[in-house]
Amino acid sequence: DSGVTQTPKHLITATGQRVTLRCSPRSGDLSVYWYQQSLDQGLQFLIQYYNGEERAKGNILERFSAQQFPDLHSELNLSSLELGDSALYFCASSVGGPSNVETQYFGPGTRLLVL
Amino acid sequence: SQKIEQNSEALNIQEGKTATLTCNYTNYSPAYLQWYRQDPGRGPVFLLLIRENEKEKRKERLKVTFDTTLKQSLFHITASQPADSATYLCALGESYTGNQFYFGTGTSLTVIP
């Protein structure tokens, strides 16, 4: 158990809908990362938050947004869903200290299926 | 374009042998490289980290090498066991862009009893 929790575990929805994925980082970790993993794309970095502020952005679509709250939990919002958004979404956390060389601890993921 | 390529085929080896997985990258300047293990339907789990100025790192039955000239990392599992069967991912970190990682596509390893 990495200490990172994600809810829900599974989500089934229809095209055009909007969903929110939630992540609680390990106790003490200030950085949260979101990844998308699909069969053909591998693990793709979406976005990173550090102590409530956006720190780095990857291949995140404009239909997707995220935020990190004062209690450090984070939410990833996916809107106008398309079939191709079906994937495993992982959250990871790290201490977020001054060193850039940090291990990331991954949650169990949310499996999203868009029908 | 930037690419991180791992063994294109799944790797099947006999129990007790050494498994060697490769990670080749193009158009990255990694400050460090990490290896993760991922079991089906679960999140990746950190195994080892090696920095650009290190040639080799070991941890129990695991060994990682990092050759920045060849732009390659090798990941070895010695005395492999069926429990080592999983997908292994390499991830590059470029120190000047924060803690953002770029992951390879992974290599599926099966250790046959």
Write up this protein.
The complex is a heterodimer of chains A (115) and B (113). Chain A contains no helices and eleven strands. Chain A has strands spanning 5-7, 10-13, 19-24, 31-38, 42-50, 53-57, 64-68, 74-78, 87-94, 105-106, 110-114. In chain A, strand 4 and strand 5 (42-50) form a beta hairpin. Chain B has strands at 3-6, 11-14, 19-26, 32-38, 45-51, 56-59, 62-67, 72-77, 86-93, 96-99, 101-103, 107-112. In chain B, strand 4 and strand 5 (45-51) form a beta hairpin. Chain B is globular and about 40 Å long. At the A-B interface, strand 4, strand 5, strand 9 and strand 10 of A face strand 5, strand 10 and strand 11 of B.
How would you summarize what this structure contains?
The complex is a heterodimer of chains A (115) and B (113). Chain A is mainly β.
The strand count of chain A comes to: 11
Class by helix and strand content of chain A?
mainly beta
Mean pLDDT of chain B: 90
Average predicted local confidence, pLDDT of chain A: 92
Beta content of chain A? over 45%
Low-confidence stretches of chain A: none
Report the sheet with the most strands of chain A, covering strand number, pairing sense and barrel closure. 7 strands, mixed
* Beta-strand percent range of chain B: over 45%
Rg of chain A (C-alpha, Å) = 13 Å
Report the order of strands and helices of chain B. EEEEEEEEEEEE
Largest interface: A-B, 29 and 24 residues
Distance between the termini of chain B: 40 Å
Radius of gyration of chain B: 14 Å
Range of helix content of chain A: under 10%
Helix percent of chain B reads under 10%
Dominant shape of chain B: globular
Quaternary: heterodimer
